[in-house]
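Need tokens for this chain, all 413 residues.
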Amino acid sequence: MTSVDAAAAGTAHVTSTPILHVDMDAFYASVLLRDRPELQHLPVIVGGGHRGVVLAANYPARAYGVRSAMTATRARRLCPQAVVLEPDYDTFTTVSTAVMALFRRTTPLVEAISLDEAFLDVSGSLRRLGTPLQIAEDLRATIHDEQGITCSVGIAASISVAKLAGKRAKPDGVVVVTPAEVTSFLHPLDVGDLYGVGEKTRALLHRLGLVTVGDVAHTPVRTLQRAVGQHLGAHLHDLAWGTDRREVAPRSSGVFGHGARSGEAEPERSMGAQETFARDTDDGDVVLREVLKLTAKVAARVRAAGVAGRTVTITVRFADFTTITRSRTLAEATDVTQELYAAAVRLYDALGLQRARVRLVGVRVEGLMAREQVQRQGVLGERERGWADADRAIDLATRRFGSAAVRPASLLS
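Here are the structure tokens for all 413 residues:
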């Protein structure tokens, strides 16, 4: 449903669609082009210097297939006429800080996913600011007036549906999905479009003959659980019906791998580690070994603190110092090394790097909560019990014999 359609629908659902997903349109490129009107309709790439990678591309460049994290060489091959601009990280951070401050004046329930993307729960702001649609339009107008850039907003009853609605709204639009429209909106989509479903899960579901979201929705939960595991099967069923119950968790975003800036938000509850390679490397196996090492270190710290986290963030800095971050929020908080590592690997694989030289890699676990608050389903379920027990045994050994006493086999060479 478009914003015009939503306005015509009246206010019957204003309290049932309180979740906003706000995403700046081609953020990095848009910020740099504010004072370059002569470049507005030309393909523009941000970053991607010699042997570097693309930080961002505007929509004309994306039409040629240019994407973030793509090597500069490939981007120039796809779009040789593109204008290449150097990143201005200070300006990006300044604009992002102003936008996030606007969000937090609207509602205290702001979950920043990155510098240019956030979820907002506006259920407590309706009496003061109007309907979710009115709030979305006011935010869009203010961002455009104050920052000179555009954003797209998805509005729905749940985080996962709002995310997909926001994707449908791009660029520079609003899409409202009311509870009555969830199934007609979701079920024709490919299962890979579901929020949090990666390429491996998509491929597995396709092999099982589950191609659309509707296919998953109409498969009995027990059948799904036998095919993909108890927790994932139940989670996919909820996503397919738009009934996932994850709430907006207030947090700020890390800034280019240098940690979070709280601004007006509460201090971020997270733990992380990063490592700079002695020499830049384009060997994916070397990078993932370091990711495993960092994940094991962070997971041990998380367990020692008696907490568990829901969001895994990786930071990758390239040879030209272009730095990108990617985050993935899990269905349940976890302190299990293998679960955190699997999420980090999915994030890294999704970058699709092709011989890009990596200078630094980092892993961070966010959204920490006391471990006793974690529900038994998922992280404490039977399927993950073996890895959790292994982690506890490793923790005992390292406390007694030192940190080098037990390590993953792939790190022994």
